[in-house]
Design goal:
By secondary structure, this protein is mostly helical. It folds into two domains: 55 residues, no CATH class; 173 residues, no CATH class. The protein has eleven helices and two strands. The chain has a two-stranded antiparallel ribbon. A hairpin with a 2-residue loop joins β1 and β2. α1 runs antiparallel to α9 and α6 packs antiparallel against α7. The mean pLDDT is 84. Belongs to the cytochrome P450 family.
Length: 229
């Protein structure tokens, strides 16, 4: 068995759908490559993905490995992943997240305000699918990077949002064609964003970025470089 099945459906951006269809046809365990199995049994989720399971993440994550260094997305080793996780754990505590509620509410309020202006006096419907997607991305941008894309005020995706959306297809190609990975570092504004944030005063950065920049990753015994963030 070769990897051509994976290659074919990944190139068409239908790999997830094809795997789901294969499970419907063959059952909870499907072989999708020479040394790759897919499971869709909910009882196995904790065994495979649970904290402390000790299993490496799938090689798909290597697609985000653009340099000689692992970044936050591409770390597969459980010990190193735990080190990165410990660095940002405080940012995702219940108390910290509750403190971000006003930010989330403000973004939702922006959307309602925009809809009110756009639809006032009009008898028409509005597809909110893209808006829910934009709210999530804007909240992530603001909580992690301290960047407001402005998408929710204008109703038009910021170029950075478009870059992220197009990166999904690029990631699929890099997953099935490793030589392409060296070009991933050229994705617009990725390193530039990290360097810009690193140059700011500590008080101007978000808690997440402060921890990634200031804390030591105990799994490697040093601070993270820009490429690793």
């Amino acid at each position: 068995m070769s990897s051509m099945w994976n290659f074919y459906y990944a190139a068409k951006l239908r790999r997830a759908y094809a795997i789901e269809e294969a499970h419907s046809k063959y059952g909870p365990v499907v072989r999708i490559g020479p040394n790759e199995l897919s499971y869709n049994d909910p009882l196995l989720l904790k065994t495979i993905y649970g904290h402390g399971a000790g299993l490496k993440k799938t090689i798909f994550y290597d697609a985000g490995h653009f340099t000689q260094y692992d970044n936050l997305f591409s770390v597969r080793d459980p010990a190193r992943h735990s080190g990165r996780r410990a660095m940002v754990a405080k940012s995702f505590s219940q108390a910290t997240l509750m403190g971000q509620m006003s930010l989330i509410q403000d973004n939702i309020r922006r959307v309602f305000d925009f809809w009110s202006i756009k639809l006032i006096g009009k008898n028409e419907t509005l597809d909110i699918f893209h808006w829910v997607h934009w709210i999530a991305l804007d909240v992530i941008f603001q909580m992690c990077l301290g960047i407001d894309s402005g998408t929710l005020q204008t109703g038009q995706p910021h170029p950075k949002i478009r870059d992220l959306e197009s990166f999904i297809s690029a990631l699929a190609w890099m997953a099935i064609c490793p030589p392409l990975r060296k070009y991933g570092i050229k994705v617009p504004w990725t390193l530039e964003a990290v360097r810009t944030i690193r140059a700011k005063e500590k008080s101007e950065r978000t808690p997440v970025m402060n921890q990634l920049i200031e804390e030591i990753d105990l799994s490697i015994g040093r601070h993270l470089m820009d490429e690793e963030i």
